[in-house]
Amino acid sequence: MAKYLLRTFVIVYLFLLVAWPVALVVTNTFDDGLTSLRSLFEDGDVMAALRLTLIAATTAVVINTVFGVGMSLLLVRYEFPGKRALSALVDLPLSVSPIVVGLSLVLVYGGRDGWFGPTLESWGFQVIFATPGIIMATAFVALPLVIREVVPVLHEIGIEQEQAAQSLGASARQTFFRITLPAIRWAVVYGVVLSLARSLGEFGAVKVVSGNVLGQTRTATLVVEEKYLNFDQQGAYAMAFLLAMVSVACIVIVAIIRPKEGART
Amino acid sequence: MSIEVTGVNKRFGDFVALQDVNVTVPSGHLTALLGPSGGGKSTLLRIIAGLESADTGTIRIQDVESTSLPPQKRNVGFVFQHYAAFKHMSVAKNVAFGLEIRKRPKDEIAARVDEMLRLVHLSQFADRLPSQLSGGQRQRMALARALAIEPGVLLLDEPFGALDAKVRRELREWLRRLHDEVHVTTVFVTHDQEEALEVADEIVVINEGRVEQIGSPDQLYDEPANDFVMGFLGEVTTLGGAAIRPHDVEVSLSPEVPGAVEGTVARMLRIGFEVRLSVLTDDGEDVSVQLTRTHARSLGVQDGATVWLSPAVGATVRTPAQTTALV
User: Under an 8 A CB cutoff, do A163 and B51 touch?
Assistant: First the structure.
């Protein structure tokens, strides 16, 4: 009996909080059939925004994956002073509001009175109000996701397989690519998917650093806001639908290709 | 000499793991590092393999100064207690790993893997994943993997420690036979004195980071250098103030032997083929005695009987003066 009560409660909760609102986005998108989606794809500025989001998200994911795997190895396999502080620092982007992230990036890299920005600008490299800033903000907010997936798996697989590989003659590089990476591959895949979803959806930090210049530094999420504020609700829903679909597609693909027994190692 | 360990010290923080350890292992021998858990024997093995570094001291492997060589350059085969199987590779791929790293030709690798799998009786499992093997099979795979690279020395860290008693016994007999076939210098760590006595040519007893005694199984059992070695290799009781093994105590129902100690059987316990007696002597000593079932029957020993105890001929006795004598 308690089991059914609990089950009903969870279903109602998820329905009210997640399923219903998302379903309404879908139904609103298709209120006029495919017109709203079609008009989206015919809008050059929207396409530019999608392209920018894709570039920023992909670059941020690549950076976070390489950095995340390296960082995880450092945190799990090595002992050094300040390790706990570093581990806590890695989690910071999860707890800090993205708006704060954006503002802090402006403080450092801002072109006019940032700490480092004017120097970079004098070398002809603009960060804030340009693509690099968007990538940095996106990478910042998605930073812990790969690490938090990989670290527990590294702990679980332990060090013996790597030591066995070494005693069989493998160099550090060979050990990493032949033993460690295959063992953590699922954790990396999950981390990448989470990072990608998070990066595509980033709004606050990007809004601060991008400058929101139409056709140049306006990302997909900013388009949603812009359209919504301009009473183009149909367009806003269509854009939101596109973003949601990409995330759903990521999750579905992973669910299909992941090994049956659910083993992460 | 295949392995020479000289003056090795190792600390983990405040804990002294090894203290001035000197061990030499002759070529082709099967040597056991025996001692209680936490005594430093695994640390010593890992230092020999290069998986751990010594604070001071030197390691020579096959007459090559190896103290600062990384593990992949030592040409050492290492087998872990928990197998360390490469989980994402088939059994054959596991065994081939070291050879593929060495970039050997494909057909040579295939032939060698075949030969190794035959040696460890796993030929029919070549395409399985390690997770589909039993513990004993996984450990044999790990052995084949270590042997495939033709290591100068083979190091085994509690190789049978994670297996159940029956498989353990089978595997150690099998290891002994394998060693007689392959003749690679082998060092294995164990805390099981029976395993060491049964399998090894030579035993190094290590306790609290120090080498207590090095010798053949018989030497260690018959002439233990100190109380620790005597106690660790088998059961010990006291008779007339001297340490003696319970099966070395002779029991008779009449005072036949001069100097025999008189006492009464306080407890009698039958376990399979053996009978254990607890004899309370007139001097107040509690002596344990082990007899075979048949011997006990022919003597007619019973609970509460008065018996006379004396060291058997050829018994190992350690008197309080810290010397061992063969009676």
Answer: yes
Confidence at B166, pLDDT banded by 50, 70, 90: confident
Rounded to an integer, the average pLDDT of A163-167 is: 93
Stretch 32-61 of chain B: residues touching chain A, C-beta under 8 Å: 49-51
**In which band, very low, low, confident or very high, does the pLDDT at B102 lie, cut at 50, 70 and 90?**
very high
In this complex, do A170 and B72 lie within 8 Å of one another by their Cβ atoms?
Answer: yes
Q: Which residues of A touch B80 (CB under 8 A)?
A: 160, 163-164
Q: Considering only residues B18 and A210, tell me which one the structure prediction assigns the higher pLDDT.
A: B18
Structural domain containing residue A181: 31-264
Q: What pLDDT is recorded for position A265? A: 43
Q: Does B116 touch chain A (CB under 8 A)?
A: no
Q: Is residue A10 part of a domain?
A: no
**How many Å apart are CA B115 and CA A154, to the nearest integer?**
34
Q: Do the domain assignments include residue A169?
A: yes
Which residues, numbered 37 to 76 in chain A, qualify as contacts with chain B under a Cβ-Cβ cut-off of 8 Å?
none
| Sequence-ordered alpha helix ranges (H) in A123-180 | 131-157, 160-167, 172-175
pLDDT at B322 over 60: no
pLDDT tens digits along B193-216:
999 999 999 999 999 999 999 999
The DSSP annotation for B17-45 comes to EEEEEEEEE-TT-EEEEE--TTSSHHHHH
Global confidence as pTM: 0.81
Residue A22 lies in a domain: no
pLDDT at B111 over 90: yes
- Rounded CA-CA distance B223/B229 in Å is 9
Is B159 in a helix, a strand, or coil? coil
Total domain count, chain A: 1
Residue A265 to chain B, least CA–CA distance (Å): 8
Q: How far apart are CA A168 and CA A170, in angstroms?
A: 6
Query: Identity (one letter) of the amino acid at A43?
Result: D
Enumerate the residues of chain A whose CB falls inside 8 A of the CB of residue B72: 166-171
Q: Would an 8 Å CB–CB cutoff place A178 in contact with chain B?
A: yes
Residue A47 belongs to a domain with what CATH number?
A: 1.10.3720.10
DSSP state letters, A109-126: H-TTT-SSHHHHHHTT--
Per-residue pLDDT, B321: 62
Establish if A18 belongs to a structural domain.
no
For B77, the enclosing helix (H) or strand (E) is strand B76-79
